[in-house]
Amino acid sequence: MISKKNTTFVLLTFIVITISLYTVEKRLVFYNNKSFGMISYKVDKDKYLSKFTGNTINIYLENGKLYSQYELKDELILSNAVADLDNDGKDEIILLTCKDTSQYAEYLLVLSFNAYNESKDTITFKEIYRHNFKDLNPWKVQTSDVDGDGKTEISIGVYKTSPLHPVMAKRPFIYDWINSSIFPKWRGSRLSRPFDDYVFLDLDSDERDEIVSIEHTAEGKKVLTAYSWKGFGFEKTGESISFLDISSISVKLDQGEKTSLVKAKVKQNSKWLEKTFYYLDGEILTK
Questions:
Q1: 123 is in which domain, residue-wise?
Q2: What are 41-68's pLDDT values in tens digits?
């Protein structure tokens, strides 16, 4: 026989677990939170979650049930992004792939929704674009809309020299997607300083994505630096205070304010801390 006290405990435990699962699901759907390994994927009004592991793309229902799988042959996924590149209501999957566990990729792939099967219990994809980027040492792919025209660009982080900066360094290249192919939009020589990683987000709510990067200062510390698109290139528009180190950066959506925030792991006073940052009047501040 279960006592009233135990029943209350079980009920409260169930409520806490239910709320926790609902919170996780909301974050998976709305935040594209990669700490959970999931990214939202849409086909018209149907919403799914996608996870990329090894050579496999797993598509899940929003309740977490595995729905469909797609495997690459003789390729591993190094980096991935999901976006509706052609504004047809169906997300494309953008991949950087390599043949082994290299730190740099060989190919840029774009997969498009192909069809449901007759019973609509699986999704098939078709490869609509492939380009060999091996000579550029690509290490990251993501998407953006830096000029606010409503058209999604593809950004590829590369590691190479530049005519105006002839040393090996990380550089963010940006390509327009036109008629199922990429065309260079910006292949600048560098940012203000050497950087480790970068993300895109609409930091100042102007309907255009900014670049926010982890940069090295001359004093041996690290800062977050923001850049906005100005005509034919980027202009520095903000910076955080310096930290002993910054090990990671990601994008977080503030649902209450409907704004995008920067989430970073920083080292301050010999301690590693998870901090959230926002933009205000030329500064990147801690929330």
A1: 12-139
A2: 999 999 999 999 999 999 999 999 999 9
